[in-house]
Amino acid sequence: MSEIPAELRYRQSHEWVRVDGDVAVVGITDHAQDAMGDLVYVELPDVGQVFAAGDEAGVVESVKAASDIYAPVSGEITEINEALDDEPELVNNDPYAGGWLFKIKMADDGELKEMLTADQYQEQIDSE
Amino acid sequence: MGQRTPLYDAHLAAGAKMVDFGGWDMPIHYGSQLEEHHAVRQGVGLFDVSHMTVVDVAGKDTRAYLRRLLANDLDKVGEGRALYTCMLNERGGVVDDLIVYKIAADQARLVVNCATRDKDLDWMESQTGGFAVDIQERPDLAMLAVQGPKARAFLQDLVCDDARAALGELPFFGFAQVGSWLIARTGYTGEDGAEIILPGEKAPALWQRLTDAGARPAGLGARDTLRLEAGLNLYGNDMDDGVTPWEANLGWTVALDDPDRDFVGRAALEAQKQKDHPVLRGLVLEGKGVLRPHQTVHTAGGEGETTSGTFSPTLGQAIAFARLPAGTTGTVEVEIRNKRLVAQVVKPPFVKKGQRAYKPV
Q1: Contact B33 A37 (CB under 8 A)
Q2: Domain boundaries, chain B
Q3: pLDDT band at A48 (very low <50, low <70, confident <90, very high)
Q4: How far apart are CA A36 and CA B318, in angstroms?
Q5: Which CATH class is domain B278-360?
Q6: What residue numbers bound the domain in which A24 lies?
Q7: Nearest alpha carbon to residue B2 among B23, B19, B33, B18
Q8: Residue A124 included in any domain
Q9: Which residue of chain A has the CA closest to B336?
């Protein structure tokens, strides 16, 4: 069973969001990292880039395959996890903390309501 | 549900993540593909390759039939030796690549790919006209690959006296039959080791003995990164019915020495040899990123395409095979998500004895 922290919000494409004031911290879920296998490369957006919710914002690549990362909410990138450049395996080992991907200054926190709760996300992966 | 090897339960017990592979439920990894890869490069890894199709050929025309069917010449090796070869269609395209074990003048064993099983068996049957041979698939057999720098010594400690002696003496690509086992010094990882073909019902006990002694189960994921590092082609990716050995870096497996040996595809190959044709080369990505199959390669002489690509766990950078215009050398640009990244054109293998081994082209 993969871990799905109750306090986070989720996107159907397996990103999670942790809200910290007006900033959303974004990563991929334990379920997603497990399905992808060992990550070997993470391509992150640039600080200052602006995305609408649903835009492609990065790519994670495992030995097996590449997978797009989507911006779960609209806004501007304020910080990226530079440690992943040398240690992409942080996403495998610690997907909800050390393996975070990027932070977005949210343009509209109303978008969070459209994201899945932990229970809803659990239902989605149960039905996959 | 797919077909299952006799080791299906052993895979689940070892924590395998199972995937469909050519109609078989096979382990892709047992937790970490990278760790399994390194275990094979540094110690001893264990693969279940029972999904491979084993075919026995017997009868008084076995030699003549196989010299017609196969692009490599079985006469190049003696009994007790194996040979890597392709079988070709009349256009010189690769029907499949395989290992043939020369058991006796009138007996040989072929191990072909599982994804091409039906096509291969049909093709082999269709080529028997005029030859007194009997072709028998052996679904009763399982196959284990024990691979790594320490694999042979490891295996010797765990098998009967006869098998131990055989393992000590086997040359590269040699094999021995010990009771119901065929033990061969072959593999698909670039490491030393052995492949053991044995009755399916005996496979679980051997698997248990080897894993208890410390062999690390390794899945198809690691098998793919290991073979790519070792410069070994994968049928369906790097060559197929429309690609000749000249175009797949497999010219070394084509035996043209005997002018009287008229193997299937020979005329087409001889005609193509005179002309410029695309070639398969290795690529090493200079910066960060991961090469994958079917990426466009921009060269001075036109476009090419990657056929296999991955992240090399041993080198820590991306590697690929690519079909490129004749004469491509130096560096090329690979298109990855609308960016062009520089890659060096090289001659594989990428890794040998655990070390960087490729040469620039």
Answers
A1: yes
A2: 278-360
A3: very high
A4: 17
A5: mainly beta
A6: 9-109
A7: B23
A8: no
A9: A66
